[in-house]
Amino acid sequence: MERPVRASVFVLCALPFAWLLYGAVYGGLGPDPGEALMHSTGEWSLRILAMTLLMSPLRVWTGKPWVIKLRRMLGLYAFFYATIHFTLFLQFYTGWAGAALLQELVERPYVSAGFAAWCIMLPLAITSTRGMRRRLGQRWIKLHRQIYVAAIIACIHLLWQARSDIGEALAYLLVFGLLLAWRFRRALKANSRLKPGKV
């Protein structure tokens, strides 16, 4: 059951990219293909990031330990779409000029937030291998908890960019807030079990 599920998740996560690529080649992205590509890749990065963080609760709820093995693949896909999103921004808005990017970061807070989220995700993607986990030990766990910080900042990026229509950004904030609350509550329970009993 594990391998077919992993293969299916891999294909499903790749489908949005394939669809966007098809639309870009055959003119199916509307009058502003650059904007359509940027919006879609940013959205898919957030969606897959939410699925990544859902794997730990899902493992507990289903009692199936192998579910957690999907987390690495999903996390890398979330970073993949975030990187394409960032690359498209460089291509269509700054022209790969460092000075132009710096100006955007200074003048547009939502750009700074998005860039910060991507920068947090970068070391997580680099250290996602089993070898890096062994080398870093407990530091690996602390480092990868920063994914929640990246998720919240990414939501703020969307919220600032949305301006008037903030419903979608608030929905993402709610989802990530609930996932973070679940993690926090579980950590509190674990700490309380470790404390010595009262005499």
Automatic annotation (TrEMBL):
<dbReference type="InterPro" id="IPR022837">
    <property type="entry name" value="MsrQ-like"/>
</dbReference>
<feature type="transmembrane region" description="Helical">
    <location>
        <begin position="108"/>
        <end position="126"/>
    </location>
</feature>
<feature type="domain" description="Ferric oxidoreductase">
    <location>
        <begin position="41"/>
        <end position="155"/>
    </location>
</feature>
<feature type="transmembrane region" description="Helical">
    <location>
        <begin position="44"/>
        <end position="62"/>
    </location>
</feature>
<comment type="similarity">
    <text>Belongs to the MsrQ family.</text>
</comment>
<feature type="transmembrane region" description="Helical">
    <location>
        <begin position="74"/>
        <end position="96"/>
    </location>
</feature>
<feature type="transmembrane region" description="Helical">
    <location>
        <begin position="7"/>
        <end position="29"/>
    </location>
</feature>
<feature type="transmembrane region" description="Helical">
    <location>
        <begin position="147"/>
        <end position="163"/>
    </location>
</feature>
<keyword id="KW-0479">Metal-binding</keyword>
<comment type="subunit">
    <text>Heterodimer of a catalytic subunit (MsrP) and a heme-binding subunit (MsrQ).</text>
</comment>
<dbReference type="Pfam" id="PF01794">
    <property type="entry name" value="Ferric_reduct"/>
</dbReference>
<keyword id="KW-0813">Transport</keyword>
<keyword id="KW-0349">Heme</keyword>
<keyword id="KW-0812">Transmembrane</keyword>
<comment type="function">
    <text>Part of the MsrPQ system that repairs oxidized periplasmic proteins containing methionine sulfoxide residues (Met-O), using respiratory chain electrons. Thus protects these proteins from oxidative-stress damage caused by reactive species of oxygen and chlorine generated by the host defense mechanisms. MsrPQ is essential for the maintenance of envelope integrity under bleach stress, rescuing a wide series of structurally unrelated periplasmic proteins from methionine oxidation.</text>
</comment>
<protein>
    <recommendedName>
        <fullName>Protein-methionine-sulfoxide reductase heme-binding subunit MsrQ</fullName>
    </recommendedName>
</protein>
<keyword id="KW-0408">Iron</keyword>
<keyword id="KW-1133">Transmembrane helix</keyword>
<keyword id="KW-1003">Cell membrane</keyword>
<keyword id="KW-0472">Membrane</keyword>
<dbReference type="InterPro" id="IPR013130">
    <property type="entry name" value="Fe3_Rdtase_TM_dom"/>
</dbReference>
<keyword id="KW-0285">Flavoprotein</keyword>
<keyword id="KW-0249">Electron transport</keyword>
<keyword id="KW-0288">FMN</keyword>
<feature type="transmembrane region" description="Helical">
    <location>
        <begin position="169"/>
        <end position="185"/>
    </location>
</feature>
